[in-house]
C-alpha cells in the first residue's frame, strides 16, 4: 500500500468514475485503474462496484476511503510541520523543465519566488522533452518540474495554467469568428524555425487539430513575429498570455478552443520543504492569473 494508491482511491470515490478521477489528477486512466486494482488485490477486498457508467463504493470501500482521507490529511500535516521548521533557509530547489517552458520559470515564477525566499537557490534543469523531465524526477535529479500535462501515473501533477492558442492576423484577412481549426489548412503562417522547441510545440498543436498551413516565414526571432504579421507576410499562431503589443492586428480565438495545459509535477515521495513552498506559491500565482484573465473561464465554459 502506498500514498499514490490512496490518493487514486479517494479521487475515484469523489468523482464517481475512474476516467473523471484520472482527468482531475492529470494522470493516465489505465495507470489509475491499475493502481486501484493492485490495492484491492493487496487488501483482498473489493473497493468499488460498477453502477451504470460509473462506480460506487462497497461497504468495505467506504471504510477504506474514510481511513485513507485521515491518512492523507495526516501526511500533509506532518509535511507542513517540516516546511514550518525549515522555512527555506539556505535551501536549494531543483526544477526541471523543457526549453519551451524555461522562460515561464526564469522570467515569471522564479524571480517573484526569489524575492520572497531570498535564501533559496533555485537551479533550473533543462530537459529535451517531457519524457526527459519525467526521468529527472524519477532519478531524483529534480525536486519539481514544469511540464505539459497529463503525465504518467507514477508522478503527481498540479495543474498550473491552461494556455489558449489564438490566431494573430493582419486586419485585412477575412475569417469566420471564432475561427474553426480547419481554417488553418493552407493558411500562410509565420512559424518558428524548424528544429527548435517552439516549432515542435506548434507542429504538435497543428497535428492535434489536423491542420496543414503554409510556412510563409520561419524565424526564431520572436520579437520580429508581430512585425512580420503587420507587414502582411502571414498570420501567427501563439499563446494569448504571451502576446506583446497587438495593436492594429486581429486576435481571434478558435472554436473549439485550442489549449495546452501545463502543470507542476513531482515524484510520489515527500517533497523538500522549499519545494512545497514553491508549489504553494505557484498555485497561488495560478489563482491570481485566473482572477485577472476573464478569457480563461469563458473558454473553459465553452468546452
TrEMBL record:
The record's section on Pfam families has: HTH_1, LysR_substrate
List the PROSITE patterns hit by this protein, alphabetically.
HTH_LYSR
Q: Report which superkingdom the organism of origin falls in.
A: Bacteria
Q: Which UniProt keywords apply?
A: DNA-binding, Transcription, Transcription regulation
SUPFAM superfamilies, A to Z: Periplasmic binding protein-like II, Winged helix' DNA-binding domain
Q: Where is the HTH lysR-type domain?
A: 1-58
Q: Which family does it belong to?
A: Belongs to the LysR transcriptional regulatory family.
**What protein name applies here?**
LysR family transcriptional regulator
Gene source species: Actinomadura parmotrematis
